[in-house]
Design a protein that fits this description.
Blueprint (H helix, E strand, L loop, with lengths): L4 E9 H11 L1 H7 L2 H8 L4 H19 L12 E5 L5 E5 L11 E8 L2 E9 L1
Antiparallel strand pairs: 1-5, 2-3, 4-5
Helix pairs in contact: 1-2, 1-4, 3-4
Length: about 120
């Protein structure tokens, strides 16, 4: 039998992420990102664009898995990492999901007011 594929996509209004950060500060970041992701975003010229892209990535992978942001999937189930060329991918932190990071392909983009993530999951 061939590979079964699932997709997930999410778009986030960066202004909404910025408002959440202004309201809740680091508590917001610590709720939705891992420490490594926070460190990565803090080094970027526009930190909130990078935060929004990671937010969208986690939403998109939760859709590809089929759980949404519930039923065992949480903000810290996965972590977005970048290779030396900047290409994003996932590190799966919650092994109970039953997926491996190399089975998930991720594309991120942000421009203007929006960040978008697209996920292709091979099952």
């Amino acid at each position: 039998m061939g590979v079964h594929r699932e997709v997930g996509v999410d778009i986030v209004d960066i202004r909404r992420i910025r408002l959440s950060y202004e309201r809740y500060g680091d508590k917001f970041l610590q709720r939705v990102l891992t420490e490594s992701e926070i460190d990565y975003c803090r080094k970027k010229k526009d930190m909130m664009s990078s935060v929004a892209a990671r937010f969208a990535a986690k939403e998109a992978v939760s859709k590809a898995i089929g759980s949404g942001m519930s039923r065992g999937f949480s903000w810290k189930s996965v972590e977005v990492v970048n290779d030396k060329h900047g290409k994003p991918s996932f590190r799966v932190l919650d092994k109970t999901l039953g997926i491996a990071g190399e089975k998930i392909r991720l594309s991120l983009s942000h421009n203007g007011d929006y960040a978008v993530a697209f996920v292709l999951l091979d099952l």
